[in-house]
Specification:
Layout lengths: L1 H10 L1 E2 L6 E2 L4 E3 L7 E5 H14 L16 E4 L4 E4 L17 H16 L2 H10 L3 H10 L14 E4 L6 E5 L1 H9 L4 H14 L2 E6 L2 E5 L12
Antiparallel strand pairs: 1-2, 3-4, 5-6, 7-8, 9-10
Length: about 220
């Protein structure tokens, strides 16, 4: 790849739009291409981008009205020049998104609201492939409680991490617990065996009188118990 890039820099690249042979500096970087350079030169790429925006009914792209020092970036939404660290990272050639983090988040919320009716619906659709309607129907089938412990009004959709299929709706603790045990029935079974062998039990030996029964292993309970 380096050899091809070096040869392109020396001989120049031909832009298929304007048919000019230009030095590599006149092309944007593109890591996906073999030579590491964009298909069109910077001038033609800008013109094509602007034509595409007009075709989609989007206004002309904004440009900074002030000079932007090195290590800084201008946000078109809030019209402020901020450090690069204030912009989310991206895999694009520039390495940073066009909008600063607050504006980027606000745009994301607006898109989720416009396309899905809110962040909750967007999150369910994007991650699990179901919506709030399907969530409510599944919760009703469970009787409105967590499928594991029976806590009312659970809010977490549980899914099989291997297949992606939705399994049920759990409370925060049960959902996190399954994740900590890596959805492994074997690990959960060993945990049950461990608890049974180490947990002291209160046994009723007379009305109102209990006796602590020793497990097969483990220390005796503290006085506070």
């Amino acid at each position: 790849m380096n050899k091809m890039s070096d040869s392109s820099s020396e001989s120049g690249n031909k832009c298929p739009q304007c048919e000019r042979t230009l030095p590599a500096t006149e092309f944007h970087r593109d890591r996906r291409r073999v030579d590491g350079l964009a298909y069109y030169c910077k001038t033609c790429a800008a013109a094509r981008s602007e034509a595409s925006r007009r075709k989609r009914g989007i206004g002309p792209q904004k440009k900074a009205s002030v000079s932007v020092p090195d290590g800084m970036k201008w946000c078109p939404d809030c019209n402020q020049v901020k450090p690069l660290e204030d912009f989310p990272q991206t895999k694009k050639a520039s390495g940073r998104h066009s909008y600063c983090k607050p504006c980027h988040n606000a745009r994301g919320k607006e898109t989720a609201q416009r396309l899905y009716g809110g962040n909750r619906e967007y999150h369910l659709r994007r991650r699990y492939g179901v919506g709030q309607k399907e969530f409510d129907e599944l919760l009703a089938e469970q009787g409105g409680v967590c499928a594991v412990c029976g806590t009312p009004d659970p809010e977490h959709l549980d899914h099989d991490h291997r297949t992606g299929w939705v399994r049920g709706i759990l409370c925060f603790n049960c959902n996190g617990g399954l994740g900590q045990f890596r959805d492994s029935p074997e690990r959960l079974a060993r945990a049950i065996t461990y608890l049974r062998g180490t947990t002291w039990q209160r046994v009723l030996i007379h009305p109102g009188v209990y006796q602590m029964c020793s497990p097969t292993r483990g220390r005796p309970p503290s006085r506070r118990s």
